[in-house]
Give the backbone structure.
Amino acid sequence: MICIITGDIIGSRKIKDSWLLSLKNALKVVSKQNNKWEIYRGDSFQVEVETENAIKTAAYLKACIRINKPADVRMGIGIGDIKSKRKKLSESSGDAFVNSGAAFDSLKQAKVNLAIKTDFPDFDEEINVMIKLSLIAMDSWGIVAAEMVKLALENENVLQSELAVLSGRTQSLVSEALKRAHYSELMEMDKLYRKKLNQTLSK
């Protein structure tokens, strides 16, 4: 089982290209290997990550793009098997790719910027409700909130006082930004997603 995230940048033609460097750097961070991601058609991308990291990865990619306001990102998360693995990610095939494409294609109709599809409909229904609720917070991230979420995800298990030093901001400002971003609730959702995923896959 692997996870494929297919995405594109919303309104990329109307904004300057600062998002492109942010996207490239973010994809390098989450894939950990250069051949596990690809940018195509100018503003579309695919990246392969571990299944348990799907939600956290999506949140990280969104934070990296939201720093370049008004840029935003649409993503379809697909989990499944892989059939043939080619050098170019977009030329590989398997259920993970089909599910990712289907999740991405469903976004406009559902009027959301993030969705997941697996081979388990009950799991999808439950997780997609959680995702919709989380988007109430994520879709309203301002630049500072997005910066703090990005920094917190890059430096997990680090105290807020240390995040303040890293960001050059006061601890109260860091705390306020993460609270505004609903970061702790997002981490609870990530934990629940991992638990439900393990339960579903071990059936």
Observations:
- The mean pLDDT is 93.
- The two ends are 14 Å apart (CA to CA).
- Residues 4 and 48 are 5 Å apart (CA to CA).
- The first strand starts at residue 2 and ends at 10.
